[in-house]
Write a structure and sequence with these properties.
This protein is α/β, with parallel strands linked by helices and 329 residues long. It folds into 2 domains: 246 residues, Aldolase class I (TIM Barrel, Alpha-Beta Barrel), CATH 3.20.20.70; 69 residues, Orthogonal Bundle (Non-ribosomal Peptide Synthetase Peptidyl Carrier Protein, Chain A). The protein is built from 15 helices and 11 strands. The longest helix has 19 residues. The chain is globular, with a radius of gyration of 20 Å.
Length: 329
Amino acid sequence: MLKIGNLEIEGQPLLLAPMEDLTDPPFRYICKQYGADLMYTEFISSDGLIRKGAKSVKKLEIFDYERPIGIQLYGHLIEPMVESTRIAEKSNPELIDINFGCPVRKIAKRGAGAGMMRDIPLMIEMTAAIVRATSLPVTVKTRLGWEDANKNIVEVALRLQDVGIKALAIHGRTGAQLYKGTADWSLIGEVKNHPDIEIPIIGNGDITGPEIAAQRFNDYGVDAIMIGRATVGRPWIFRDISHFLKTGEILPPPDLAEKLSLARTHFYKSLEWKGEPRGILEMRRHFSNYFKGLPDFKETRLKLVTALEVSEIENILNYIGERYSSLPE
């Protein structure tokens, strides 16, 4: 069971990782339908939030069907992070999560995200200030360290626990590593099994299917698993993993009818939340992935990801149904 403050999730929970321009309410709706146990908003800039930037403020919108949900914040200065925490608290999420894990250069070079791994004293001071500023549970997502020569996650985890965080999610790469190479779960396991660690430890990195998820639970004893990039174009991964953990069976992939229904639901949720044309433009990456693997799909895919009208997209989805429905799954 995963316990974060008063939040309790039974079994071996599967979490949707916060991802910029991906884990918006429409995608969260889809992932929840497929069994995500805990989700997060896209990460929100503390500077943008306190300036009342439209994009940052809109990311605070959460819906009852998404619960439990955490709001994730990032920034490099303590006072804006504290103020943005108080603002985010008004949206009544189940928890506040601090992003000390994003390796994207424009964020990390300012000292935010994974860049905070280069200044551990500031990281600890900021976290302590945020914990004091809110009555909600505060959690952290971070990496093994900034670079291979300084994988200090065990020390960092103990210090973060000391200042009051209620759970820690660890991505098994360094900040400098970005998403290259293979996630190293050995240090995640070392943190989880440290005799002085009492908070839940959530493992993240390279969870691509049911068998690897089960192996990570069994080998490292983590309290939950967080899944990021593997959900894009495959949100049913939550259902697949959950079923395997309970039964040991591998589910067959969704058929074309299910994928088309999923794509349409996601598309119209996107239009409802964002309007046109943004709701269309930001669906392109999802559309491209939902139908990955269909034979001779290149030309149709190009039309799907360049269409600018709702009616045009509907016609393409209808064509996909007609063209590929007779093919074996």
